[in-house]
């Protein structure tokens, strides 16, 4: 087993190629062990050099809804009225602490995702994007 640290992009690409070659390894074999070790090294490199930023709270909420077949109506117990749900999903109103707690406790959406700052649409932005009438 030839294992070296992943320090550069070239090391990274080489390790990814090795992982690809080992993907069909039988569990419990030296090849599977090699795959596990290389995968750990690649994950550490990716965490440091190619971090994936946390999702935008509203994008995360919409993804959660789509992946679980939820509708805007399903969010009413957690966000409030139909209008309030619309305002939140269309970025007209920020999530409140109560909404975040409800979404976290009842739907399991991580609070640390929902607490992140995100842009809201302000009335002035709406008028500018609508253009002349």
The number of distinct β-strands equals: 0
Structural class: mainly alpha
Assign a percent range to the helix content: 55-70%
Mean pLDDT: 92
Element order: H for helix, E for strand: HHHHHHHH
Largest sheet: none
User: Rounded to an integer, what's the Rg over CA atoms?
Assistant: 22 Å
Number of helices: 8
Estimate the global geometry from the Cα principal axes: elongated
- β-strand percent reads under 5%
End-to-end gap = 69 Å
pLDDT below 50 for ≥5 consecutive residues: which ranges?
none
Give a quick set of tags describing it.
mainly alpha; 64% helix
Describe this structure in words.
The protein has 133 residues and is mainly α. It contains eight helices and no strands. Helix 4 packs across helix 5 and helix 4 packs across helix 6. The model has no long low-confidence stretch (mean pLDDT 92).
How are the secondary structure elements laid out?
Layout: H1 9-22, H2 30-49, H3 57-68, H4 72-79, H5 82-89, H6 97-107, H7 111-114, H8 123-130
Task: Explain briefly what this protein structure is.
With 133 residues, the protein is an all-alpha fold. It contains eight helices and no strands.
């Amino acid at each position: 087993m030839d294992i070296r640290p992943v320090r550069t992009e070239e090391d990274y690409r080489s390790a990814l190629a090795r992982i690809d070659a080992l993907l069909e390894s039988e569990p419990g074999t030296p090849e599977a062990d090699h795959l596990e070790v290389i995968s750990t090294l690649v994950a550490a490199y990716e965490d440091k050099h190619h971090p994936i930023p946390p999702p935008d709270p509203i994008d995360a909420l919409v993804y959660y809804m789509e992946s679980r077949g939820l509708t805007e109506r399903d969010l009413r117990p957690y966000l409030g009225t139909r209008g309030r749900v619309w305002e939140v999903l269309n970025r007209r109103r920020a999530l409140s602490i109560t909404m975040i707690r409800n979404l976290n406790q009842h739907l399991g959406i991580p609070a640390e995702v929902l607490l992140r700052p995100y842009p809201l649409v302000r009335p002035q932005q709406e008028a500018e994007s609508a253009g002349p009438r």
